[in-house]
Structures are given as structure tokens and as C-alpha cells.
Amino acid sequence: MELGKHxxxxxxxxxxEGMKKALEILIILAEIHxxxxxxxxxxxxxxxxxYKTIGDAGLEFLKDMAEAEIKxxxxxxxxxxxxxxxxxxxxxxxxxxxxxxxxxxxxxxxxLPSCTCTxxxxxxxxxxxxxxxWAESSAVIYANSVLGAMTxxxxxxxxxxxxxxxxxxxxxxxxxxxxxxxxxxxxEYPIISEADxxxxxYHIGQNYxxxxxxxxxxxxxxxxxxxxxxxxxxxxxxxxHYHNITPxxxxxxxxxxxxxxxxxxEVSEAYEKLNSTEDVDIIAVGCPHAGISEILDVIKxxxxxxxxxxxxxxLKELFRDRIDNENIKLIADTCMVVSPLEKMGIKSIGVNSAxxxxxxxxxxxxxxxxxxxxxxxxx
Amino acid sequence: MRxxxxxxxxxxVEGQLVVSKKAISFLGGVxxxxxxxxxxxxxxxxxxxxxxxLLLPRGKGSTVGSYxxxxxxxxxxxxxxxxxxxxxxxxxxxxxxSEIPMLYEPRGELLNIPCxxxxxxxxxxxxxxxxx
Lengths: 379, 132
Fold this sequence. Notes:
The complex is a heterodimer. By secondary structure, chain A is of the alpha/beta class. Chain A folds into three domains: 5-175, Aconitase, domain 3, CATH 3.30.499.10; 180-272, no CATH class; 275-378, Rossmann fold (3-Layer(aba) Sandwich), CATH 3.40.50. In chain A, helix 3 (51-67) crosses helix 4 (93-108). Chain A has helices at 5-11, 17-32, 51-67, 93-108, 137-147, 156-165, 194-207, 222-232, 264-273, 292-301, 313-319, 354-362, 373-378; strands at residues 38-40, 44-46, 76-78, 133-134, 167-169, 183-187, 212-215, 241-242, 258-262, 282-290, 307-311, 328-332, 348-351, 367-370. The N and C termini of chain A lie far apart (60 Å). Chain A has a five-stranded parallel sheet with strand order 12-11-10-13-14, with helices on both faces. Chain A has a four-stranded parallel sheet with strand order 8-7-6-9. A three-stranded parallel sheet of chain A has the order 3-2-4. In chain B, helix 1 (65-74) packs parallel to helix 2. Helix content of chain B is 15%, strand content 27%. By secondary structure, chain B is of the alpha/beta class. In chain B, strand 7 and strand 8 (127-130) form a beta hairpin. Chain B has one domain (2-130): 3-Layer(bba) Sandwich (Glucose Oxidase, domain 1), CATH 3.50.30. In chain B, strands 1-8-7-3-4-5-6-2 form an eight-stranded mixed sheet. Chain A binds chain B through residues 21, 24-25, 28-29, 31-32, 48, 53-58, 60-61, 155-158, 161, and chain B through 6, 8-9, 32, 62-64, 66-68, 70-71, 74, 87-90, 92-93, 96-97, 104.
């Protein structure tokens, strides 16, 4: 593989052991995927932040890395943690302590503690065609599909390695020829709510790999594309096209690719799989983190029961003192998936995100009701 | 018998082989205190990896498994060497940060070797030497 002087110096150990390991990881990934070179990136987004997901093993590793005094080489933001340190909610104390340590180690490496899965709402907004190294599957698919930036689905460790070295192996979705649609999806039922988009994404994500192209008449909101992408990414999908909407959709002729028509049956099945209860302790929105329109939706609905809205800290700050309804709790830096809800006395949750439903069931063992915000609040 | 492979992390170790015909999930699938495989129904359930040379088809499950391998190493219960059929990102990254000698893509049948044989994993030159 072609390596520049900077990389050769790193491999000789001149930039420290941690940096050397980071580059070794990137080189092995390149070899595994037959990449011929490393390419510079304009930003990184790192997952593996919540103590709930990385545990003591991850904390141990990050501490050792941070001790070596190495710094990231590109603007780097961070995924949600397990805790909102400024919230009135009671997070378990030992968990909070561990969480603080994890964020401190990342910060020491020069990572910005944005703690959001929507870095594009928080100042990390790549241009079309930018090569980036993002982990967090919902952000990856949004960046590729809606923003036209180029990234593979990195792991916590490969994204951290890319951030440190400032480069990433050139393969997969970094190459234009791999971004073409492989499946045309047509929908024969009316898509009405955000949850319909989520159910559609969930069905395709669980049953297909590759790059779907949605030909749907309805014009989605930007937030619908975020919800759709997150649901697709519960499987192996890392990019989609949406007819007349996403920036690369018009590049391709779609007449010759495999086609699937989805009807009421498929969408009902998706709803069924994502539902395991009728009554819920709380309603939680913001998976991925809520955008402005979604927060306004909740305010407008004026809920008579508790709704937790997970968002990025800049939007939490923006809406501070602008919400009169005490049932609405704005929470930043964490979400229903990576905070230890199951240890906070919550047994069931109502969500309008298929991703949240999927992981609440499978990671947190919560009972789930999945529906549109409007329907969740109606009961 | 000698089987060549590509090098992930360099080093030479000698030990007993543990051969898994099925993929291993490190996060949740292995006890980080003891190094024993605890995934229910896994063919190697109850078998310890400490100090062994692990042969496996690939990793599976969460990519956090790389960190699990790291913690096993710190706890002194990690395998001493790894040879994976597929170049698996989670296992390969884990081997690099944990400094466990590792090979991948064997040129020959790897997973039919019986458990318990002694072997040398030479991840400096890129081969596994199984003793008769």
C-alpha cells in the first residue's frame, strides 16, 4: 500500500504507540477490503461513548490511549453518552461517574464532546463529496444519502483510528461506483406519518442489503429522511436514494435494477414486529436526536402525559425557557437507546422511531409501543 | 503441518489449539474475568481461551468486542494467538490493540484441525505450524 512520509513516521513509532496502533488498524482494514490507499478526511464522528455499550473494557482502552497524549487530526465529534449531566432526571450515580471518565478521555484526545447522533445539526456538516469517517449507523446513512458526503459505516475503533491519523482506507462508499442503487422500492399504500417512514425503512433494512432507491410521490420532511435512514440502518444498509429528493438520485437509471413493491401487508408486519405492549411508562422521541420541527411538533401537541425529547445540546439550549408544558422533558447528550433506562425504573416505552423500538426491545429489554407521535399521544 | 496466512499483528507464540467452527461474539459471548466462552448453545460453551491459540471462522456481534478482547488481555485471560479464516474487522482491531499475534485468510483447511493439538503461531513470517 502507498504510504506518505507522515504515515511512515507513525509506523516507526515517532508519533507514539497509540498513533501507531491507530494506523495499524487502518492498514489492516485497507488490506481486508482491498483498498490501495488511505485518503484524507474532513471530519470524524465517533461512536462507543455510552458506558452502557462500551463498559469497563472500552473505558480501560480509552484511558490507556488518552494517557499517551495523542490528539485527533481532524474535526471530531462524539456520539450520545448514557447521561445528561445537566438534567433533572436521576441517572444511577456509579454510571454517571464512569460516563464522566469516558467523556474526559475523549476530550483529552481533542474530541469535541458534542454527544449527539445528529452531528449535522450540531456544526459537523460535511459538504457533498467530502470523505469523512463516521461511526453511528444513522449518521452514516444520513451523510451518504441526504448530504452526499462519503463514508463507510465505521466502528468505534476504526472511526477513532481515522480521526487520530486524519485518513481512512479508500473502499466501499468512498468510491463513486459503489454508490449506485441496487433495489427500486415502490410503495402502494399511503405514507402518512413519520412512523410510516420508519416502518418502511425497518422492513427494507431487515430484508435487503445494498442501496435502495425509493420512488414515492410524497415529499418527505428532512426529519423523515433521518427517521427512514436510521430504520434502514438497523440492518446492513448504509445509503439510500429518494426520487427527486436526495442529491445523487438523479445520477442513475433505475429501470434495470431489481424492483420491489410494498403494500399494506409489509408495513403492517413491520408495525407488528416493533410493538410488544399497549401501555407505556413514558413516550420518548428523538431517535436520531430530534430536529427543530420535531421539537415544535411535541410542543404543538401539548401532551397531557410525560414525553421525553432527546436532542443535541444546542437545540436543548435553544428551546430552554420556551416550553411551558411540564410534561415535556428536553434531554441532551443521551437517548432512549444508550441511557440506562432499564435501571431507572422504566419498563415500557412509546416511540415513533423504528430504530428506538428495535434497540429498546433487543438491547434494553423494554416493552415497546411503536406508532406516530400523534397516535402515541392520543391514548 | 504448516498453514500460511496474512499477518494482522506480528509475534510468535506456542500453545494448545482451541478450534471454533462457529463465529465468536466477544461482547457478551466470552467471560472477561475467566476467558471462558459463555454463549449459550455455542459448540465451545464452557471452554477457556486463556493462553490458547484460537482458530475461528470470524467474529460476530457488536464491534465493542474489540474492547472486550483488550480487557481479556489486561485480565490475563486472552488467547495467546488468533488465526481467523476471514479478515474480520472486530477481531483484527481487537488483536492489534491487545497486541495478540494474529493471522487471517489461511491457505488451507484451518477449522478441521482437532482441538487440543499443540502448535506454533508464527505471525512474524505468517504461518501456523501444527505439531503431530
